[in-house]
């Protein structure tokens, strides 16, 4: 009985070892390296995004609704929470030039992390995005009232206006 068990383990071990090199050849050896200096990033494919263009002919109401949706549906949860709460507080009070600034800010940069780093002041804001709305967003991000911001707001406030 014992010898049968030992034999099975030995055979299965030999079989696994003989298959291992074939399997390793099929699996890519690339893993996440972060900002490693030896990472050539040659395996990354850049997909060009269409250039941002301001939407002409939109009423302010439609623009606010679109910006509210776009503030809530981001590529990363941090910006979803931050921008949707910001939009809830400020979007209904923004005038046309402010809405244009906000539209450009959240839609032109192709990387959501850039917006997050600018809002948290981890990186300097490029001149093209600097302005009244960015200043409002940076101030909002500081959360001086220490509100609990764990999720995007419910949509119940939409028909009642900003609370």
UniProtKB/TrEMBL annotation:
- Cell compartment(s), UniProt: Mitochondrion matrix
Sorted UniProt keywords: Chaperone, Mitochondrion
Question: Where does the source fall among the domains of life?
Answer: Eukaryota
Offer one example of a GO biological process linked to this entry.
mitochondrial respiratory chain complex II assembly
InterPro entries per the UniProt record, alphabetical: SDH, SDH_sf, SDHAF2
Q: Where are the transmembrane segments?
A: none
- Coiled-coil residues are none
Q: What does this protein do?
A: Plays an essential role in the assembly of succinate dehydrogenase (SDH), an enzyme complex (also referred to as respiratory complex II) that is a component of both the tricarboxylic acid (TCA) cycle and the mitochondrial electron transport chain, and which couples the oxidation of succinate to fumarate with the reduction of ubiquinone (coenzyme Q) to ubiquinol. Required for flavinylation (covalent attachment of FAD) of the flavoprotein subunit SDHA of the SDH catalytic dimer.
The record's subunit annotation is: Interacts with SDHA within the SDH catalytic dimer.
Name under which the protein is recorded: Succinate dehydrogenase assembly factor 2, mitochondrial
């Amino acid at each position: 009985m014992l010898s049968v068990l030992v034999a099975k383990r030995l055979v299965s071990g030999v079989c696994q070892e003989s298959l291992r090199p074939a399997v390793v050849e099929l699996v890519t050896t690339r893993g996440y390296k972060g900002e490693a200096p030896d990472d050539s990033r040659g395996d990354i494919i850049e997909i060009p995004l269409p250039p941002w263009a301001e939407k002409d002919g939109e009423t302010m109401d439609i623009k606010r609704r679109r910006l509210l949706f776009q503030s809530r549906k981001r590529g990363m949860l941090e910006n979803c929470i931050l921008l949707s709460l910001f939009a809830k507080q400020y979007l209904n009070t923004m005038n046309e030039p402010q809405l244009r600034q906000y539209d450009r800010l959240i839609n032109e940069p192709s990387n959501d992390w850039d917006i997050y780093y600018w809002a948290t002041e981890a990186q300097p804001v490029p001149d093209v995005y600097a302005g009244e709305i960015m200043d409002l967003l940076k101030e909002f991000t500081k959360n001086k009232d220490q509100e609990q911001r764990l999720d995007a707001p419910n949509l119940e406030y939409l028909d009642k206006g900003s609370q």
